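Researcher: Here's a chain I'd like modeled. Treat it as a single chain, no partners, no ligands.
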Amino acid sequence: MAKRVLAIGIEPGVADYSAFPQLTPELVRDYIEAQLLRLRDRGFEVTSCLIDLDAAAEAAVTAALREERFDCIVIGAGLREPKERLLLFEKVLNLVHRLAPEAAICFNTTPADTAEAVQRWIEPG
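Model: Modeled as a single isolated chain. Structure tokens:
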């Protein structure tokens, strides 16, 4: 049976790119889609959960975690930086801890290394 992965990240259209002027919402979307495709090609079942920066973010993560069981949760770098997102990051991390306690948790460092982050913790199955 294929291992299930939930990829949680900031919706590219609402992210702040001032610290990364080389990135655009379209480019980040392309990176995300390419990484999800890489994971699927390697035998994982992947669900994407792109969230806004408001109160709806917690509801979206909660719904995704309650919808199915995941073997691994990857949390995008956009949730950990900038430091103004620390509270949102903590809320997401605590939701994952509470609602998916058996899942491995991993972090990517860019939108282009999600597959490597997942594969550090689980095999496709």
